[in-house]
């Protein structure tokens, strides 16, 4: 098996893997397709193209099966929705269960003894039904979850299963699902040993049981495959600063364990530095103790045309000023060092070198300083050191890693992400498995929220993805990220962190640090002043993305607008050949001057012709829709 030298997860959940032999593998965002590029022989011609293999993951060749499985595991660890093809997952990792697991119930903090969950500084929270487990690290900065998930199915089977579950499951007054569950088969360590002894109840949602002598390709009796589901345990790693909503309740339970533990003083000191821990400190009593478990993606992708089959040259190109910008980087594993990059209103960089310590850069320190958190093994004493990116410490002989090299590599990736984010030629929000068929991706395109011309200076454009485009009259254009939402209006008043992309009149692009603009200080300062003035005036409306079920993309809503227009058109006197005469109270017609009447006659003729053409087009559309509806 080829050993990995680099593994990268992008913002759209696509995975790129580099091997020590020189081979590369690219996994689609949904996980259903892969591209394997073999390494060139040492004596090959420089112009010889490498041999590539592009296939569906469900039909992977045996030569690439192990590499692909490890790439899928890497993707599923950091993706909100895993991809679990049954034919690729080993048989020993799958379980046969006789119930549909859609949600899990967590313990009540008033009844459960949470202090028993602490083991050597870390916390383990298990659900009441055994469907999921949460492990919070000693630093309370990251956590791991393990949960049972049904393997990926076809799109039709997934839709049928969701409809069946919505009709089949009912809730009692306590919110617990009344569904048949086999509690003895939910343990992670135990598997079903005697499947033929279990009796499957046949109902209207399940097919009749066939002969038990037949077996499928995995050696499982058909008695189980016809009335049961294949499940597997999925492990995911999340940061406390950014995680899916379904893990908020168990995470709050884990944080409560520290407040009730014997080491309360140490935790209080840590909470004083991080009072909210990314906004997860909440009262579990006020939230529902039932969490909906993540579901696996379908076997086939609905938007395969969005799959990207070009490798990123950032990790191979030494010239960091010349590289492509395919996607934002989210996770990087390189030579035992793990990097996590969180892109949002607050950008965060986390580095885990593998020695139970970690580096973090966020807030006003983002891109300038990294805080190193360590714990001594014997005394459990916590230490914090701050490193400046401008004066990194020299390498110490005997250390397993170089602090200078680790932080420098993180800064390069952050700059690459900023260049990608500020690129106006690529929409990094597009993702195949997040597309909605009804909208064709229109809900993911950025919208223009504000457009203003500044006299003798330039023009300002503000988009819904927080990108600000400033064009000056002398040909200089500037792109920067700025959040105009109400929650961030006060935060960014004195903020001068991050980078911006400047384009000269000749077309040359430069990534410039806002805190050190150099000769372009006048342009950057002017653009930031514009943004701050808009924050203070609150002229930018807060953008709220609409779902496809709302009126924006509804056909019924569009037809209703057409009907309203027709109503106004039919009840208006504009279409009349003779203009309506204005009358005075005595009934005598008021005569207009000759010049004014001629102008009105010309304008009414133009409006009349335009409205007649519009009315005819609308009638054609209505007739076409009526014909297609039949």
Number of helical regions = 9
Shape: globular
Q: Span between N and C termini?
A: 59 Å
Give the overall pLDDT as a whole number.
75
**Strand segment tally:** 25
Strand content: 15-25%
For the report, how would you describe the main beta sheet?
Answer: 11 strands, antiparallel
- Biggest sheet: strand arrangement: 5-4-3-2-1-14-15-16-17-18-19
How would you sum up this structure, described in words?
The chain has 4 domains: 4-79 and 299-394 and 401-421, no CATH class; 91-164 and 199-292, no CATH class; 436-537, Arylsulfatase, C-terminal domain; 557-629, no CATH class. By secondary structure, it is an alpha+beta fold. The two termini are 59 Å apart. Residues 162-215, 220-226, 262-279, 489-494, 547-553 and 577-593 have low confidence and may be disordered. The relative contact order is 0.08. β16 (348-352) and β17 (358-362) form a beta hairpin. The chain has an 11-stranded antiparallel beta sheet, sandwiched between helices. Strands 6-12-11-10-9-8 form a 6-stranded antiparallel beta sheet. The chain contains 9 helices and 25 strands.
Tags for this entry?
alpha+beta, Arylsulfatase, C-terminal domain, 4 domains, 11-stranded antiparallel beta sheet, 6-stranded antiparallel beta sheet, globular
SSE map:
Layout lengths: L3 E7 L4 E5 L4 E4 L5 E5 L14 E5 L8 H14 L15 E4 L5 E3 L12 E2 L2 E5 L5 E5 L5 E9 L4 H14 L53 H4 L3 E11 L8 H12 L4 H10 L16 E3 L36 E6 L2 E6 L5 E5 L5 E5 L6 E7 L6 E7 L14 H19 L26 E7 L3 E6 L3 E6 L4 E5 L17 E5 L5 E5 L7 H17 L17 H16 L23 H36 L1
Antiparallel strand pairs: 1-2, 1-14, 2-3, 3-4, 4-5, 6-12, 7-13, 8-9, 9-10, 10-11, 11-12, 14-15, 15-16, 16-17, 17-18, 18-19, 20-21, 21-22, 22-23, 23-24, 24-25
């Amino acid at each position: 098996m080829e050993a990995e030298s680099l593994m990268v997860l992008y913002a759209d959940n696509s995975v790129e893997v580099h091997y020590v032999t020189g081979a590369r593998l690219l996994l689609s965002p949904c996980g259903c397709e892969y591209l394997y590029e073999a390494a060139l022989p040492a004596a090959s011609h420089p112009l010889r193209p490498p041999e590539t293999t592009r296939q569906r993951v469900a039909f992977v060749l045996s030569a690439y099966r192990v590499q692909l499985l490890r790439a899928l595991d890497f993707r599923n660890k950091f993706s909100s929705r895993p991809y679990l093809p049954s034919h690729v997952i080993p048989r020993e990792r799958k379980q046969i269960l006789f119930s549909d697991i859609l949600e899990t119930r967590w313990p009540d903090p008033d009844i459960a003894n949470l202090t028993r969950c602490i083991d050597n500084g870390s916390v383990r929270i298990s659900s009441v039904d055994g469907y999921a487990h949460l492990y919070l690290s000693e630093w309370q900065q990251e956590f791991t979850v393990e949960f049972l998930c049904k393997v990926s199915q076809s799109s039709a089977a997934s839709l049928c299963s969701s409809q069946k579950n919505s009709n089949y499951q009912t809730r009692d007054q306590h919110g617990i699902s009344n569904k048949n569950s086999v509690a003895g088969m939910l343990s992670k360590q135990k598997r079903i040993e005697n499947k033929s002894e279990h009796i499957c109840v046949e109902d209207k949602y399940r097919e009749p049981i066939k002969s038990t002598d037949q077996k499928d390709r995995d050696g499982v009796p058909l008695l189980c495959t016809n009335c049961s589901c294949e499940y597997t345990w999925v492990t995911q790693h999340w940061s406390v600063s950014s995680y899916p909503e379904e893990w908020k309740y168990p995470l709050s339970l884990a944080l409560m364990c520290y407040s009730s533990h014997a080491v309360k003083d140490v935790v209080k000191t840590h909470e004083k530095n991080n009072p909210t821990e990314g906004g997860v400190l909440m009262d579990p009593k006020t939230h529902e103790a039932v969490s909906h478990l993540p579901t696996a993606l379908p076997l086939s992708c609905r938007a395969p045309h969005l799959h990207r089959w070009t490798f990123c040259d950032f990790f191979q190109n030494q010239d960091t000023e010349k590289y492509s910008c395919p996607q934002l980087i989210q996770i990087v594993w390189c030579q035992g060092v793990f990097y996590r990059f969180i892109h949002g209103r607050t950008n965060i960089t986390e580095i885990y070198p593998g020695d139970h310590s970690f580096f973090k850069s966020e807030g006003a320190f983002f891109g300038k300083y990294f805080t190193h958190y360590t714990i001594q093994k014997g005394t459990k004493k916590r230490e914090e050191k701050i490193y400046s990116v401008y004066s990194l410490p020299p390498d110490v002989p005997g250390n397993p890693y170089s602090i200078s090299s680790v932080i420098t590599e993180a800064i390069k990736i952050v700059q690459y992400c900023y260049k990608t984010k500020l690129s106006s030629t690529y929409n990094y929000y597009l993702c195949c498995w997040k597309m909605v068929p009804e909208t064709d991706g229109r809900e993911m395109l950025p919208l223009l929220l504000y457009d203003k011309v500044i006299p003798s200076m330039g023009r300002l454009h503000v988009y819904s993805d927080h990108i600000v485009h400033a064009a000056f009259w002398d040909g200089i254009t500037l792109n920067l990220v700025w959040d105009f939402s109400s929650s961030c209006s006060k935060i960014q008043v004195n903020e001068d962190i991050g980078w911006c992309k400047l384009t000269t009149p000749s077309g040359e692009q430069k990534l410039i640090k806002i805190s050190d603009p150099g000769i372009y200080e006048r342009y950057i300062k002017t653009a930031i002043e514009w943004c701050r003035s808009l924050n203070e005036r609150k002229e930018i409306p807060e953008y709220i993305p609409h779902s496809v079920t709302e009126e924006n993309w509804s056909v019924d809503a569009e037809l209703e607008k057409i009907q309203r227009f027709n109503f106004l058109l039919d009840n208006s006197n504009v279409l009349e050949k003779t203009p309506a005469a204005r009358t005075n109270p005595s009934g005598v017609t008021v005569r207009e001057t000759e010049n004014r009447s001629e102008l009105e006659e010309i304008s009414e003729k133009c409006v009349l012709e335009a409205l007649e053409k519009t009315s005819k087009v609308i009638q054609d559309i209505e007739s076409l829709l009526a014909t297609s509806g039949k």
